[in-house]
Amino acid sequence: MPALAESYAFCRGVARKRARNFYYSFVLLPREQSDAMCAIYAFMRYCDDLSDEPGASREAMERWRGALVNALAGKFDEYPAWPAFCDTVQHYQIPHEYFFQMIEGVTSDLEPRAFQTFDELYRYCYQVASVVGLCTIHVFGFESPQALPLAEKCGVAFQHTNILRDISEDAARERVYLPAEDLRRFGVDSHELSNQKPNEVRRRLMEFEAGRARAYYRESQPLVDMIHKRSRPALRALIGIYSRLLTRIEERNFDVFTERVGLSAAEKCWIVLLAWMGR
Predict the structure, then answer these.
(1) Which 3 state secondary structure label does DSSP give 207?
(2) 38-71 pLDDT per residue, tens
């Protein structure tokens, strides 16, 4: 296994290469915290990739869960991120349950998705995104326990934004994340979600879901002032990038079907600059 410094360097390389949104916020953190965020990201990235690769199976995810159990007990396999990951978890006293929740959430993606209610979708968002937010605020630092439910809501806002952005490509892979109760309410068939032709009924559904994401952004807003001062620019940057992505979807009249919606590197850098300035 690599030495601790080498392990952190590996994690930083993964984050720099793969964390298209998160890495922009990492640069606003002191080096120790930035390294910790890269270590957490390396774990989450591998976990997510494992569920998406060809031939992914519950057996493979169970082996990964076992590797996590062993790593937290100090027994590492060949994955280079383990030393840095475990050092981060121990140093920032991050509850282990968050990482097992993440595995459970991505494992559920191995089968075609169909959520009947928003409560079911919320549970999924908690497992794959809110737990990331909860890990993050442990690194950022906080005192009030009220920060925990706000971090949970912030994660739901981020994940719901991702769901809206990726709705067409997910549908093509038989992953329909929008609740069946919402599809019925707006008269949208799940098979329409991969159709690139403009559709007013589908647009109204998207507008409703975007409003739901906006509500979670508003509810989680007090979180910024609850974390330690030196970490606030990084959190402002994260929220700024994801909320701007939602704004871009709205500006395109909710057309995420003909072209993937995203932000340019220049836009993300501008958001990071504003976050650093406290705006």
Answers:
(1) helix
(2) 999 999 999 988 877 766 688 889 999 999 999 9
